[in-house]
Write a structure and sequence with these properties.
This protein has 114 residues and is α+β, with helices and mostly antiparallel strands. The chain has a domain of 77 residues: Surface presentation of antigens (SPOA) (Roll). Helices cover 11% and strands 25% of the residues. The protein has 2 helices and 4 strands. The longest helix is centred in the last third of the chain and has 8 residues. It is elongated, with a radius of gyration of 17 Å. The two termini are 23 Å apart.
């Protein structure tokens, strides 16, 4: 869902510093150097819903569509369509960011691919 919007934005800046995705983490990735610069798509899925085509065609600017997730509930973080974590939406430097609250274990991520 590329065009999701969240009503969780309170307008307050988050005081936690954002993680630079280009900085190395605490993990040692020995042997993975050839693939470490490959770009992947990370998506935060904030919710979904089903609606009849009639309702879809009646949408206009200002329309509201209720999603199936609750405010404050952790959202799915997907990398190339695979669940890797859960997180919450925060605001940092006037941009949306993700604060990870759970990380899916590597073995669970591999299981989801099969």
């Amino acid at each position: 869902m590329d065009n999701e919007q969240s009503n969780e934005n309170t307008g307050k800046a988050d005081t936690a510093s954002a993680v630079d995705p280009h900085q190395g983490g605490a993990n040692n990735h020995t042997g993975l150097d050839p693939i470490l610069d490959i770009q992947v798509k990370m998506t935060l899925e904030i919710g979904s819903t089903s609606l009849p085509i009639r309702d879809l065609l009646n949408l206009s600017q200002g329309s509201l569509v209720t999603l199936d997730s609750l405010v404050g509930q952790p959202h799915d973080v997907l990398v190339n369509g695979t669940l890797i974590a859960k997180g919450e939406v925060v605001v940092t430097d006037e941009k949306f960011a993700i604060r990870f609250t759970e990380i899916v274990s590597p073995s669970e991520r591999i299981k989801s691919l099969t």
